[in-house]
Each structure stands twice: as structure tokens, then as C-alpha cells.
Amino acid sequence: MSRNNYLAVLVLSPVWMSSSLPAIAQSSLDNDEELVLQVTSPRLVRDLYETPAAVSVINAPDIREGQQRLQLDESLNTVPGLFFQNRYNFAQNLRLSTRGFGARAPFGIRGIRIQVDGIPYTLPDGQSQIDAIDLDSAQRIEVIRGPASVQYGNAAGGVIDISTALGDELPQGGRLRLDGGSDDYRKAAIQGNGVDGDTSGIATLSWLTFDGHREQSKAEKALFNARVARDLDSGRRITATFNALHNPKSEDPGGLTLAQAEEDPEQATALAKRLDSSQTVNQQTLGVRFEDSGVLPGQLTLDTFYTHRDFAQQLPFPGSSRIAYDRHFYGISSQYQQESTLAGLPLVWVTGLDVHHQSDDRRRYSVSIDGDITGQTQAENQSATNVAVFGQGDLALSDALNVSLGVRFDRLRLAIDDDWLQDGNDDSGNRTFREYSGVAGISYKLAPAHQVYATLGTAFESPTFTEFANPNGGGFNPELEPQQALNREMGMRGMLGRGLSYDMALFSIRVEDEILPFNVGDQTFYENAGETRRNGFELGLAWDLSYAWRVTSALTLADYELRDFVDEQGNDASGNAIPGLPEQLWVSELEWRGAAGRFAALEWQYVGEFYAENSNQTLVSDYWLVGMRAGDSVRMADQALNLYAGIRNLLDQDYFSNVRINANANRPVEDRGYFEPAPGRTFYAGLEWVF
């Protein structure tokens, strides 16, 4: 878990000072003034205390120090409102939800915008892949904990914006890191960076092998991330980013029934072993950013990117279960920000254009119970094109009072060109959606270190290609529409004295035309089946007890309810809880820092009970997790040797690391494979040579 910066204006003691603070913040610290924390994820760059939204910022030491850097939950666990599952199944990837968005996905990330260095990791149809995110390179993470379609369009129920390091942001040199731990966990990472005149560069290479605690759960993964930046002249910079993922194999042990999980939590399903369910991925991403603040009165930013992904997967059941696709995803995003005046009042505004295109050449094959391919069942091209324009502005009515307005228009076209006609069906077709999103907010500074705000905004989330299957046969389901959300939020953040910072938010979200699954025989289809109500309270605290001790805590209390809703069995589910979402989350960390780089941290987490399906027949028990980590540093002239170790699930608690929501809805409840048991007590340790 990590220590989050929950405030926009704060005074940090030298013990907690981070080398990753922005330049404006560092200069303020040098002059013993208040620290102004700027945020960029809302696209309108501004001080956090002028931002009418729930935003959290995590800097490099909190991402790296004593962590394995395997999954985003390590860095983001103490951000209020976020819930993570599936940390240990690398074939299905981390599941993430915030305020109910992303909860309906049985695996992976849906409904939440992910981007790295300005490059989207969320596709135009709303799905996200995060297996190529390199946390060994991450320098800063910003999180918007609520709908942000006015900035990013489709599937932006929350935003995670990751920035990796640039060569001139770190001392020149390198670092070598070696890790090992339980379940044959091994990881090695090497990083080097330097500056030559106006050019700087940095590169990181890592390799992971992991046997996993369950049968059929091995993983191998290599990541490479490099950035080269060049200052062209005053106010201009161009930065190139290259990221590559090589995942030769990640196995999938499958979901167990409750009886199977209680009998042997380390087992895989018989079919997962028999079919060798797993995935193979190779992905390459190239991005180029151009920044210019010299020609125009404001700041111009252009981002272009291209991603190629080659993917193959065997699902843990026979039938039409072997999947492969070749993906090309590319686009350009532009934005221009300027300070001006309106009726004599200060106005900061931003406008921009996004054009993104996704093209998937998809194949699907039928597999026998013995794992033999018996034929092809799908060959089609899936393409999605999104074109959007947006604008947003902040008007300062006084030194303390700001109002914000924003609007965005998206044109999203999804099309399928069916090349597999042997089945007698032509599933070709297309749908085009035109969506407007808006936001209005107000922010008031009660004092330099206290802010209150309120926001009203809309958001939309389109069906994915998978969800568009037509139950009446062929093409797109003509009845399926994007779901629409209305978000209302009030918040307050600030600092009490010089040591206790707080961040509070109340939210109320109404979602209409919720996209939900239903079954026809053994096949799953989707429909706009109802509405949901999501109300909650989020509280983040960071308290410097002394120069050496700090407590960080994040509490989420929420009520997630289905309205006008029919469940997977065709029954009225109005009033049921939205599955996959605990209504109580509490994560805390007690951290100690000594001299010469020594540190120790004790962390504890409570996850409340939740349901596994819309019908609320299966209640997943609540649980507590406790972990700890510690480290020391040995200095040798201009070099250092950092030693660290950690224990996860210190109390050896039995719990499920993932629950596959609404899985196997065509089976009796007791035969549904919802559960992926988590490991018991595990250890890891490592050393890092900084030179």
C-alpha cells in the first residue's frame, strides 16, 4: 500500500519530502512556503485546490519503496473508493472498480479510463488492458474517482493517469533490482538514464517468473519501457516513448465452486489443466508527444500513438474457446490551454480534439474436451473509431471562488466485417453513437489550506463488441444502447495544523440503461435491463504523528442498489445490491522512517461482504488482511545498496482474491465457478543497487 497526497496545499517536513515533487512544489519547499500540488489528469492543468473533483496523487517513493511492483493495487490501495480483485491471475489481469464502474466485468477492466504518458490503454469500445504498464518506470499516478466523460469520453467512470520517468527527472546513473519470494516468485529489473545537452533518456527492462499458489497459474512476463526527450528551443519539447510487452505464457486456473474451494483452494479446475488454459501476448507501443508554449499565448500539447497487440488465449472450457486476435490501435489527441479574461475576471480554458481507431482481426476456434482444435468458428474484423471535441474552462469569480464548465461531443462508430460465412450467418453490421457529456462545478477556498467543491456531470459507457451479439441472430443487437450516468458530488479537502490532511467526498450516481447479461441456453447476451443507484462517502486521511511516524487511512462507505432490474434468471431484482462491490472498505498504513533510508510499514485492510450475482443468492464473506514491509539502505560514496522485504496476508487469512461476477448463470448456483482463492501467508525480499 502507499502513502497518498490527498491535498493540494500542504507543508511537508524534510523527512517526508519526495524527490518526485513537481518543480513548482519543490521551489516552494525551498522557500519554506506552502506546497502547491498541480494535477493534470482532468486535462485542464490546475492546482488541486481549484479542482472540483475527487482526485488523488501518488508519487514515485510510494510506488517503489519496498514494493513488488506487480500490480496497480500496491500503489493505489489507499486511494478511497477503489476496489481491486484478481491480483494473482495474470491471464485475466487485475480487476478494478470505482463507485460501481467496472463492477460488471467478470475479469479485466471495464468502464474506467487508463492512460500512460498520454497514451490511452483504454480502447474506443471501452475495454482496457493494463498488462504492459511498467511500474518500475512509474513516476506519478493521478486518479479521478468519479465519471470524467467530459475529459475522456466513453468508459470514463474513473481515470487512472500514469506518468513514467524522464531521463532528466532522476540523478544520472542506473539501478539493478533483484527480487524473490514465495511460490517461486522471481523478478529482475535494470534501469539506466542520462542527459546529453538538450537530450535526455531513460530505459527500464524487467523480467518476471512466477509459479503461483494454485495449479495452472504460472506466469512469465518481460517489459521494456524507454523515453527520449529533446528540448528543441525555448518552450518546445518532443518526447518519444516506446513500450514493449512479451508474455510467453500466463496460465489460468479457472474459477472454482464454493465446495471445490473449501476442499482444496490450491487446485485448478480439471478442464483448465486438461486444456492448458492460458494466454500469450506480445505488444508494442510507440508514442510521441510535442509540447509548445513558445509560439501561442498558451500551451499546446499533441500526442500521437500506435499500439500493436498479438494475442492468443485458451479459455478453461471446451467448445468455441480458443481465441486469437491481431490488434492495431492508433490515434492523435490534441489540447490547447490558455489563460485569459472574461468580463474582467481570470479565465483558464482548454480545448482539444481526439481521434482514435481500433482494428481487431479476430479468430475463434472450437476445441474438444481433449484440447484438440476441431474447427474454426469465427473470422471477422472488429473496428471502432472515435472522434471527439471538448472544451472546459475555470472562471475565478474571486480569489476564493471558482466556477467550472465543460462539454464534450463524441462520435463513436463500431463495425464488424464478418469473413466467416460457413456457419450460414453474416454477422456484419455497424452502430454509430453520438453522445454529449457535460460537467458543471464550483470550488471555494475556505482558507488557503481548506477547499469545498460541488460537481454535477454526465457520463456514458457504450457496449463492447462482445456485448453487441444479437440474440435474434446476425449482426449487432439493434436494441442495445450506451448506459447513461448522472454524477453528483460534494467534497472537502485540506490540512489541520501542519500534520493532518484530509479528503472527503460524498457522491450520488444514477445510471440508466445499465448493460447487463442474460442467457439463452449456454450463450450469454446483453441488454439494457435496468437502473442502478450508487451513493457513498469517501474519506482519506494522512497524519504526520512526528518526523518519523505517519498514519494513512482510506475509508469507503457506500450503498450500491439495482433498480427496475431483472436478474440473470428473469426474476425481479429491484432493491438487490450490485454484485461484486463491498459496501465497506477500510485500508490503513502505519509507517516509520529512520535515518539513512530505513523504513518499516504495517498495513491492514478490511473488505466488507458482497454478492457474486445479480440475484444476490451467493454472499461472499468479509475479511481482514494484514501485511508489513521494511527496508534499509547502505550508502557507498555516490552509490547505494537498498535492502527490503515484505509479508502479505500476515495472519494467513482465507479469502478470495477474485470472484467472477455473474459467471455460469446457466448452472445451478452451487455449481457456478465464481471463486478464485487467494494465497495464504507469502514472503518476498530483494535488493537494489543504485549506481
TrEMBL record:
One of its GO terms (biological process) is iron ion transport. Pfam families: Plug, TonB_dep_Rec_b-barrel. The keyword Transmembrane applies. One of its GO terms (cellular component) is cell outer membrane. It is a multi-pass membrane protein. Keywords: Cell outer membrane, Ion transport, Iron, Iron transport, Membrane, Receptor, Signal, TonB box, Transmembrane, Transmembrane beta strand, Transport. CDD domains: ligand_gated_channel. A motif (TonB C-terminal box) lies at residues 674-691. Residues 1-25 form the signal peptide. It is found in: Cell outer membrane. Residues 265-650 form the TonB-dependent receptor-like beta-barrel domain. Gene3D superfamilies: TonB-dependent receptor, beta-barrel domain, TonB-dependent receptor, plug domain. Residues 48-159 form the TonB-dependent receptor plug domain. Belongs to the TonB-dependent receptor family. This is TonB-dependent receptor.
